[in-house]
Amino acid sequence: MHCIVTAGPTYEPLDEVRRLTNFSTGRLGSELVNYLAARGHEATLLIGQQATYRGERHARQTEDFTTTANLRERLQALASPAVSAVFHAAAVSDFTFGKVWRRSPQGELMELKGGKLSTREGTLLAELLPTPKIIAELRQWFPTARLVGWKYEVEGGRAEVIRLGERQLTDCRTDACVANGPAYGAGFGLVKGGGAVTHLPDTAALFAALEEFMRERHEI
What we know:
By secondary structure, the protein is of the alpha/beta class. Among the domains are: 96-129, no CATH class; 152-202. 26% of the residues lie in helices and 33% in strands. It has helices spanning 27-38, 68-77, 138-141, 158-172, 203-219; strands at 2-7, 11-13, 19-21, 42-48, 61-65, 83-88, 95-103, 109-112, 124-130, 146-152, 176-180, 188-193, 196-200. Strand 10 (146-152), helix 4 and strand 11 (176-180) form a beta-alpha-beta unit. The radius of gyration is 19 Å and the shape is globular. The two termini are 14 Å apart. The mean pLDDT is 92.
């Protein structure tokens, strides 16, 4: 089966030399691709240019992405009913930069533009705008695929992460959500909606569960 895995962070430019990004190594997505390839699937990996993991990648096709908009373009270019599953593990930036201002000694704000913001400008104020959620668009591009998102949370506890995962299923029309992070605790939770949550102790168990979930759709 043909599947797509996204991994690693997107970034959003402040100017031509500075960026806003998320913490993400890209390791989990890369290892998921290796698992799927070893199981005989045709796996395409979209990996963030800023990903720090440098292990082997056995994808049939690997493409780098940069910004959130660039990742959206790459996913849209791969749109096809032939795709069996999309595992969207990329750490997509929640914000992008809007306007940037310098505050004068008199307290006035002056909007700044240009290729590189000078460090001599003093205090800068930057507007952060929410980035459109790519996961909410996946169903348009992959209408018959199993769509699996991720919900990584630092605070709130396991029950709250699972609740957010179930909300993702409803809001984005995805089929499952992988819950993890400090708020979830050790291991992973595979959230399928309707109160169905499977706890998986490690990545080996997670990868096996995700492949089985993909095969279930193919066999229906």
